[in-house]
Amino acid sequence: MTVRVGVIGVGVMGADHVRTLHAVVSGATVTVITDFDASRAATIAEEVGARTVATAAELIAAPDVDAVIIASHDSAHAEQVSLCLDHRKPVLCEKPLAPSVDECASLVTREEHLALANPLISVGFMRRFHAPYQELATAIRSGSVGTPLLIRASHRNVTAYPGGNSTDTVTNSAIHEIDITRWLLRSEIVEVSWHAPKSTSMDTSRRDPQILMLRTADDVLTVVDVFVNARYGYDVRCEVVGETGAVSLAPSHALTVDASLRSTATYPEDWRPLFADSYRRQLQAWVDALTEGTRSPLASARDGLRAIEVAEALIVSMNNVGAVTPVKNS
Ligand code: ISE
């Protein structure tokens, strides 16, 4: 069986998913594409031999679409995922599942009411498929650094995507750090606080950088700096400090040039080169589960809800001069 996939939104990430599905993933074919920019949709559709439709609703209802990928603007996710539930179509929604707790909670409730053996919603927290994060998790579980006490993480982009604000930094970028912290530690984040030094002059629309403190139920503290206009390169760091040692991700730079008495590291411009293999493995795992009729091994709708609950607590802290804020579970 070949899974016929419809892709909603072919900006940076959606286009990447289309190409990965088309060229690298086995067992799937992209049949239908839609985007608010019709010519962008037409160009990539032609590249992979798909057809285009005008709206997300049309795509989700299409008879030649078995499963849907949502890579549209974050604000459109809830409505589009909801339509997938109406049509009982499996959906891989890019993170965040939706930018508010209310929207995510309502999707979780609706999906749970369907009581399906294989839930329909998967969320694109692709770092769970990144081999270095998986090795980090294995190192923690094997006890090689003792009981984890502290995580120090960084999330740095070259430039922020246009039109966002301080809140979007949390719901769109820092959401990865939130998910990976609970995934690495297997413990829920129960309390947070938000802080910021003076902002970069490069972006007047948001506080940037931001420092986030995430405390898990087992009392491990994660400290993350998220700097979405860091300019120098795309850089993700993570060090887990335990009672007897520390374990870190290897540096994000792919290339080091040694010449003229210098060693120069070259960073990627965005996340795609660093996480290309994670996206591929995530898509393949999703398609395989659909083909085999098994449960999706990707992050679930409830994982999406948990992450946005933490994000909302961070936003409360942001609006209350960094007050320590409990995370409410709905
Ligand atoms: C983007 O959507 C991602 O998923 C990237 O991993 C992240 O670094 C970036 O900040 C987001 O906008």
TrEMBL record:
SUPFAM superfamilies on file: Glyceraldehyde-3-phosphate dehydrogenase-like, C-terminal domain, NAD(P)-binding Rossmann-fold domains
InterPro entries referenced in this protein's UniProt entry, alphabetically: Gfo-Idh-MocA_inositol_DH, Gfo/Idh/MocA-like_OxRdtase_C, Gfo/Idh/MocA-like_OxRdtase_N, NAD(P)-bd_dom_sf
Record GO terms (molecular function): nucleotide binding
Location of the Gfo/Idh/MocA-like oxidoreductase N-terminal domain: 3-112
Every Gfo/Idh/MocA-like oxidoreductase C-terminal domain range: 139-320
Superkingdom to which the source organism belongs: Bacteria
Family: Belongs to the Gfo/Idh/MocA family.
Protein name (Swiss-Prot/TrEMBL): Myo-inositol 2-dehydrogenase / D-chiro-inositol 1-dehydrogenase
Naturally occurring in which organism (per UniProt): Rhodococcus koreensis
